[in-house]
Write a structure and sequence with these properties.
Helix content: over 70%
Strand content: under 5%
Structural class: mainly alpha
Number of strands: 0
Oligomer: single chain
Largest sheet: none
Number of domains: 1
Shape: elongated
Number of helices: 5
């Protein structure tokens, strides 16, 4: 048993499969003959968002893996500006699916799961504070949680 509290582990164990199930079911909410939206602009926006989400996820995963092997806080790549780029990539990807399929459930899934992912991120940050202390506090002050922080 790791030092991770039981509730966040349970929450995480429920969130990920539930998200996948909702995404699968969302494809059946379309009432049209075609799977994709007929609006070429929405379709284009959806494809751009999906590709952006995949790119961000892959890029962030590589940088996180390198930092994890070294036992340090990931602060390179997208982590220079965002503390949780993998979650951000999920938001972007989900919004892209909503645009591409233009099915209400895609947006509903995003609206339901975003607050739950936020809670999961807060728990991860508590754990990182316990491990890295003041170094993580300084990192939090320089970066945004899901989107880059504006420069004052």
């Amino acid at each position: 048993m790791s030092g991770q509290p039981a509730m966040p582990r349970r929450l995480s164990a429920v969130l990920r499969p539930a998200f996948g199930l909702f995404l699968f079911l969302a494809q059946f909410t379309a009432t049209r003959e075609t799977l994709f939206t007929a609006n070429v602009y929405l379709r284009g926006l959806g494809i751009v968002l999906i590709l952006t989400g995949f790119w961000l996820w892959g890029n962030a995963s590589r940088h996180l893996q390198r930092a994890g092997k070294q036992g340090i806080i990931a602060q390179t790549g997208p982590y220079r500006a965002i503390r949780h780029p993998i979650y951000t990539s999920i938001y972007i990807f989900s919004a892209g699916l909503g645009c591409l399929f233009f099915a209400w459930l895609w947006f509903g899934v995003l609206l339901v799961f975003a607050p739950l992912w936020y809670l999961e991120c807060r728990e991860e940050e508590r754990q990182l504070l316990a491990i890295h202390g003041q170094e993580y506090v300084a990192y939090q002050q320089r970066t945004g949680m899901f989107f880059p922080r504006g420069r004052a």
